[in-house]
Amino acid sequence: MKPISFLTEEEIQKLQEAEANSSKEQKKTAEQIEAIYTAGQNILVSASAGSGKTFVMAERILDQLARGVEISQLFISTFTVKAATELKERLEKKISQQIQESNDVDLKQHLGRQLADLPNASIGTMDSFTQKFLGKHGYLIDIAPNFRILQNQSEQLLLKNEVFHEIFEVHYQGKQKETFSHLLKNFAGRGKDERGLRQQVYKIYDFLQSTSNPQKWLSESFLKGFEKADFTNEKAKLTEQIQQSLWDLENFFRYHLDNDAKEFAKAAYLENVQLILDEIGSLNQESDSQIYQAVLARVVAISKEKNGRSLTNASRKADLKPLADAYNDERKAQFAKLGQLSDQITILDYQERYHEDSWKLAKTFQAFMSDFVEAYRQRKRQENAFEFADISHYTIEILENFPQVRQVYQDRFHEVMVDEYQDTNHIQERMLELLSNGHNRFMVGDIKQSIYRFRQADPQIFNEKFQRYAQNPQEGKLILLKENFRSSSEVLSATNDVFERLMDQEVGEINYDNMHQLVFANTKLTPNPDNKAEFLIYDKDDTGEEEESQAETKLTGEMRLVIKEILKLHQEQGVAFKEIALLTSSRSRNDQILLALSEYGIPVKTDGEQNNYLQSLEVQVMLDTLRVIHNPLQDYALVALMKSPMFGFDEDELARLSLQKAEDKVQENLYEKLVNAQKMVSSQKVLIHSALAEKLKQFMDILVSWRLYAKTHSLYDLIWKIYNDRFYYDYVGALPNGLARQANLYALALRADQFEKSNFKGLSRFIGMINQVLEAQHDLASVAVAPPKDAVELMTIHKSKGLEFPYVFILNMDQDFNKQDSMSEVILSRQNGLGVKYIAKMETGAVEDYYPKTIKLSIPSLTYRQNEEELQLASYSEQMRLLYVAMTRAEKKLYLVGKGSREKLEAKEYPAAKNGKLNSNTRLQARNFQDWIWAISKVFAKDNLNFCYRFVGEDQLTRESIGELENKSPLQDSSQADNRQSNTIKEALEMLKEVEVYNTLHRAAIELPSVQTPSQIKKFYEPVMDMEGVEIASQGQSVDKKINFDLPDFSTKEKVTGAEIGSATHELMQRMDLSQRPTLASLTETLKQVQTSQAVRDKINLAKILAFFDTALGQEILANTNHLYREQPFSMLKRDQKSQEDFVVRGILDGYLLYEDKIVLFDYKTDRYDEPSQLVDRYRGQLSLYGEALSRSYSIENIEKYLILLGKDEVQVVKV
After folding, report:
1. What pTM was computed for the model?
2. Strand order in the sheet with 826-829
């Protein structure tokens, strides 16, 4: 088709006027129209929360396609894979609609081609583009196209550690070993080994990876701070501050003497006040910095006389107390400032004295880093395995060094578009520069939502363009989208009230003015005074310590407060649980939150990707068990195992056992003492009573049997033996959040299995790998389990970005900001380079033997202090943006939840506001969100703010006043009145109590495999078996499973097995979003998320899976997704008729539709077959088991069973 020209400014204006005068219910704003149709220059769209930026981006793409641009001519970068998938789906829908509505044949054909090309379009994350790019052009720099991504942290760590130790050895024994040894000791701390240095090297490496050219930054910027250090200037600045502070003190004392001091005539402190005024009076215009410092030292010295009380007004007269207190408070504040300045003089003196030494240390560090970066890069090239950042670096290298390649891409792309531009880092920005021709960039973002600084995103990239385009429209066009279509006016006005008083250029990196304020635009939401934002504070009395110590047992006050509000919304206003979100800035208090919600039976959905898998209690117990089996002489692990629910030794029993030392030994491990106790050979054997002796014997027997078993069996078998011997798997299933705990244990067994399959064998190496992962403070992703359908969402603020919920609670407002970065030994800055704490050895000059001759002193380099200030401002700005993201998630009502003592909070005084903002010191001294919000409430109390605060005390949070859910169980509705599930759980718990008895009586049965899967049973399945209890593990719907347990795979050629294809197909069917009809594009994106190799993905026939949804069963599933349950684990107890022994059957149901009167069960099979009847016969027993489990669980007799056969070229659905 012929290209259609783009609109001129006049045409765009006409379009805006026509839209404004139209009768449409939802009109486009003038700014949206401008953003959709403007062409021919760089455009930056600053889009506030909820202003429809995704809509604008999609409309702009559609407009360009309609004007004859090809989809392949657009480069569209999104922040996440999910955002790319959603954009593709939106485009697919819109293009199809346009094709149907258009009468223009050329246009129809053109759009049809675009629709067909959509799956291959450059729409995706930067990482996905760079991978394709390097696969295509990597040969130019000798990179083979079959490279792989190092996504597995454990493997990355193993490689990194190997390279580190190689380089470490070279430097430790090289020519510069003296200076290197000094560097090593500088970071050794108490560890006295290389770990301190290694930690800093990895930290700097991560920072380097975010620059567009690591080696260049290392050579040009790493030492910049040392090179431009100017001590003369620093001293002059300090002298100015001293001068100002002494004048402030003089003014304060003079005012006091002229006014209030008359009430305290002849008081002793007034003489000292006069002495200080005389000292300050001795200064004049000629005084230099030395004289100022001397006066400051004398003034501070006077204040410290009489135990620091020389200037205290100690008047005891009751009527004068307010005057005396006011004077004392102000005096303390003045001298605190002078004390800090006095310290700064000392520090600056040391900084200057050791400047050359610390510079020399930094140069040594630079040389080591340079060698490490190069060696690690080479090592990854040998492995042909790279991190995402490496791939970006190589892409930049090719684009910079091969102009012909760069030209091809610049000619190809009509426009370079990027979403979430505020989260761009320097690598991505460089790449966008290289792909665009200088005037065809379209950037959408909101600097107020830049919250990925910890991933090296730099909001200043956005800010710099924002300022430049605002001042000079020739550079590019700045378009502001301020209308918010998401939230109620109550949410928006509260957010505006907070941020126009909190954010400015100095603290916050932008001035929150009318360019950034949110404008209410959702006319469908009528104002409702009940939805005014609330700041709820749990009033904890001053006995804070007791509160903390009880945190384990007692539900925290603020959680009970939240539960009370949730129940009120749910029961009084009929708000569904899924309309409520609980947002936290970190997951550190999640355990308390989940415990409280489960206590009240409130269903909850977590954001899944909790990287605290190895810290979860049930996994730690198992890891300690494995450590003991490997080496029982580890006391900590042994105590953990004995105290665990598996054996339940209490403190008294452990104390008795720990005293069983053999008489002839000085020191013994706990295990040796246990052996002594069994043999009765210790002096304290009387402490072992018969019950304890019996319990100990049982423990030792089981431990010995496990250790024997470990020698001849795989880790996987060993772990399942432990679960079954002690019923531990079933035990954790009965705890709160039991499903997730069981999934964690299941995953541990899988992880061990994968570990052994990847050529790493043995228990000791597995434990070693886990210890390494823990030591590096990495963790593995927690395992996702099917969440309930109607549940409160609990997620981090980062995870909530881009989402919206009717009711939002921001929890833990009182949780302190994470300050770890600013306490580090090393602080880096893009401008100044390295800031380091230098450890100096100083002579003390002590003569006596009992005094040390030298002491170590930690001196922050000048650059360190500058970087620390820069970091502090950047961190506070990031925290403000995090709060902004959290507050703008709410559609109807916002709750901010914190805790504190009412008395203390109300007594706080704050300096007056300046230019309508909180005083900058108040903002920079805040320790958490609550400090900011409370300060705003107090300082601007007269401003009629659009949020109110409310203290809630213990008296309002009794069990009665909170209330409870009428119906805790998701199964107890009228249609299932005679359901047996609760009895089954009771039986299971009773059974657990009798575990000890059970073990002794059924020793033989325990030695047999006691857990079977339906696949194992199907061979000898007998319908006559009696069944006592059934449990379908979850009545929830499975959502994205983000479980990542890949391990290094060093094999060269991939062989694809039927089992792998089967697993991948099952996972694909489970991940598929069935809320709308699947398309080839959506299936392709879903397949990318399936955890398997590319070779397996290539074998999966997506067309065949799509065809399934044309069958009667496929149609029924799509029409009844609210009745659909997928990937449901179940377990049930069965009895073997011959031996009368019970055994547990566990399995996973692929899916079923649950109706009032029947259940439709289906199972996918990828086996090859000639006739369907072969598979029907093969799987009839297995499906009967599944059907029986469902029938018992839901008390429904009518079960329809189907096999979905995917083993041939065409899909077949067979009723069994």
Report:
1. 0.69
2. 826-829, 833-843, 854-860
